Description:
10 helices, two-stranded parallel sheet, 311 residues, disordered N terminus, TIM Barrel
Amino acid sequence: MANAPVGVPVRDPEYEPEPRPGSWGVMNDKVIITCALTGVLANRDQCPWVPYTPGEIAAEAQRAYEAGAAVVHIHARTDQGRPTYEPDRYARIRAEIEKRCPVILNFSTGGSGPMESRVAHIAQVKPAMAALNMGSMNYAKYSAKRKEFLFDFVFENTFRDIGFLLKVMKEANVKPELECFDVGHTNSIWPLLDKGLLQRPLQFSFILGVLGGIRASAENLALQAREAPPDSTWEVIGISREQWRMVGAALVLGGNVRVGLEDNFYLDSQGAQMARSNGELVAKAVRMARDIGREPASVEEARRLLTLGAP
C-alpha cells in the first residue's frame, strides 16, 4: 500500500468490503414500523405525554402496537424521568409490556458511563434486539435564534467499546441494531464482520438530522442504504421536524421507519400539532405507508424479516 500512486484508492483485502454494485438492501412491500417510546432526553416540560414509569412505558407500547408498530425501542427512566440502565427497571418494563401485547422489544445501550453498566440489562433481561451506536461524533444542538449551542459534546464510541457491547449481545443471543449517524459509521461494520463480532444479515438504523452527523435529505438516505450489504434490513430515524420527510423517503426507497416521542413530538412538519401519544405518531406512519401501497408488518412478519428467533 505504501507504493500506491497518489490519488489511487487502495482496498485492504484483509478486511475491507468487496467491490459490489449499489444496493438498497432487502426490498419488501411490508414495512416494519418501530416506535421509540421515550428516549433519554425528551421530558414532560417539552411534551406532557412522555412516559417515565414501567406502567406508562408499557401503556405507550400497547398504543404503538395497536396502531401498527411491530417493534418498540426503549430507554428506561426513573419515576422522575432520569435515564437509568438498572436491569431491574428494564425487567419491570418488559414484564409490563408482555402483559399487554406481543410487540418486539429493542433496548438502548447508548449514552455515557462504563460499558458494563450500559449493557448489563441486555445480558440479564435479553430483549430480542438492542441498539448499538456505531461510531464517535460531535453531538450538538444549535439555536440560530439565540446564536448559541444548546448542548455540545463528543459522543464517544470506540471500536473497543463497540466490540465489548457486541460480545455481550452475542452471548445473550440479542440481535444488534446498528445506529449510524454518518456514512463512516455504516462502513465500520467490515472489521467487526471479519472478527466474527457481527453476523449477516444486519439491521441498520440510519439517523439523519443530528448536528454533527449526516444531513437529513433523501439523497443522503439513499447513499446510506447503498452502503449497507445487500442482504441487510434498514430503517430511517428522522430527528424532530425532519421525521416525516425522512419517513416518506424511506417508504419510497423500500426501507423501514421509526417514529415516536423520543425523536419527534409533532404530527406535522411545522411543529403545530403535538402528538398526545406514541400511537398517534405510529398511526400517521401507517397512513403514509398505505398511501404508497405498503402495509405495516405484523410482529410475526417483522420477526421473519429481521431474522429473529422465536420469543
